[in-house]
Amino acid sequence: MADLTIANTVSDLIQGDIREHLPLERIPLKGDVLGLGTTSSLENGELSFLRNASGNSDIWRCIAHNGSIVRLQPGDGSGHFPYVCFTGNVTALRHPVELGPLQQMKHRPIQEVISKAIEQERQRGALEDAPIYGIRLLAQWDELVITVASKLCMGQQRRNQEFSSDSNDGSQAEMSIYDMLQHYRLAPLSPEQPEGPIHYLGRSMQWDCCGFFDREPERGRVTVPKAGDHLHLHGCSTDLAYGGHVLHDHPNTRLGSIEQLALYPLQTIESLCSDLAIQTLTYRDAKIHFSVSNAGALDVSDVGVAVVVDDRFSDHRYLQIPWMSAGASESYNLAWPLPPGQHTIAVIADPQELVIEPQNRRQNNRMELKVNIP
After folding, report:
1. Which of 59, 117, 206, 372 lies in the 20 to 30 Å Cα band around 107?
2. How many C-beta neighbours within 10 Å does residue 202 have?
3. Does the CA dihedral 341-282-315-351 come out positive or negative?
4. How far apart are CA 104 and CA 78, in angstroms?
5. What is the pTM of this model?
6. Do 226 and 174 form a contact (C-beta atoms < 8 A)?
């Protein structure tokens, strides 16, 4: 197993990805497992991975409408994630950071502190060089702004290309989406105007956080695909009252102190993806028979399949498969009497390319058959 597994990417998610999903049961939770993600359109929110008293890990879902959290369990019906990244048991990679040499941390940007900690530990020869570092962090905040996904995965029927059309590096897309999300504020004192644009939650200022520091954020794997935005951090208050995405660069997020910080050098990265395929195609008894499979590692929803005869797209037939699990296949037959002569039958999975697949895996989305009707 790779040190870090990514089901889709943040870049994918920005474009409106809701068709590809990873089930909760596929995520290992034995030992120290780092991760974060976003839940489906049915139960919007963020995912935070926390250690529990037994030394294993739990996934907490942060709820969009009130900022509260609930622990997820396999089989409870809430576990299909359009974006999630997670490690295996990385207990052996855990490196506690010496906090003393970091000097004054109060009100410093948390990304700056973590960057300094990585540099400090590498210079000491205590921390390996790695493309991505996992993070566990126990912090006390003087003030904290969080977001919880409330519109990010709200059942888009097509990918929202307009979010990424204004920027080559994806930064405009990410800014547009975060503007849409529900913001919450935590502070020791309630604001004078509690009904302001950022909803006040309460006074839970100690937070258990988990996330990743990507040294190449432009790749958009686990952080914002934008130069300089290395940190993606989710967390929950230690009283288990609230949780969400830590908006670390918000002007009203102010760090009080870091009580614990551990870094995990993650060397190997595996990206999971979908792989739709037309497996078989025959014509007999005046019917077109074909099978569709999902050879990828992610479950896929709303799979479209087009059937075209003799390149006459005006007469094509179209079917929609509501759900296809990873490794599953479905067989279909379609009544289509053909007149005598030579004909070409084409069956195309996901003809609009709405499902995320690497280009080198799209060749099997289409199959053609030539038939001669006497």
Report:
1. 59
2. 16
3. negative
4. 42
5. 0.88
6. yes
Which amino acid is it at 119? E
pLDDT tens-digit series, residues 102-156 = 878 888 999 999 999 999 999 999 999 999 999 999 999 999 999 987 645 444 4
Domains of the chain: residue spans and CATH? 4-271 (3.30.1330.80), 274-373 (2.60.40.10)
Residues 6 or more apart whose Cβ sits within 8 Å of residue 5: 85, 86, 87, 88, 269, 270, 271, 272
Parallel, antiparallel, or unpaired for β 83-87 and 45-51? unpaired
Per DSSP (E only), the strands in 69-190 are 69-71, 80-81, 83-87, 95-96, 132-148, 182-186
CA distance 107 to 202: 20
- CA 222/CA 136 separation, integer angstroms: 15
| Residues forming beta bridges with residue 115, ordered by sequence position | none
Q: Is the dihedral of CA 27, 160, 358, 334 positive or negative?
A: positive
Mean local confidence (pLDDT), 22-33: 93
> Which pLDDT band, with edges at 50, 70 and 90, does 159 fall under?
very low
Residues ≥6 apart with Cβ < 8 Å to 152: 13, 38, 44, 177, 180, 181
